[in-house]
Design brief:
This is DUF4031 domain-containing protein. It comes from Lysobacter arvi. The chain is about 35% helix and about 25% strand. With about 90 residues, it is of the alpha+beta class. The N and C termini lie close together (about 10 Å).
Length: about 90
């Protein structure tokens, strides 16, 4: 099982943001807890189960074992991870 963090590509409020996703919700929430991200920041709407993380936390997530994925180089993997995140957000088991 794996936790993933994509490129910090989204600019919002003057910061770059990335998405933290995982193969399971338990792994996702555990990594968010290690990063001191509050549970209220969890998102599971149309974009799938994830946390938004600022670029500096992206680097910390990688240090803690998250797999860095690139929306530019790892397109098939990113699509697969996002599909699992969406299934988790709908309460399905990927």
């Amino acid at each position: 099982m794996t936790v993933y963090v994509d490129d910090a590509v989204h600019l919002w409020r003057g910061r770059r943001w990335a998405h933290l996703m995982a193969d399971t919700l338990d792994e996702l929430h555990a990594m968010a807890q290690q990063l001191d991200i509050p549970r209220r920041a969890f998102q599971n709407k149309t974009s799938g189960a994830h946390y938004d993380v600022p670029a500096e936390l992206r680097e910390r997530a990688i240090e803690l074992g998250a797999t860095a994925i690139s929306r530019h180089r790892d397109r098939a993997l990113v699509r697969s991870v996002i599909a699992r995140a969406k299934a988790q957000g709908r309460g399905e088991h990927p």
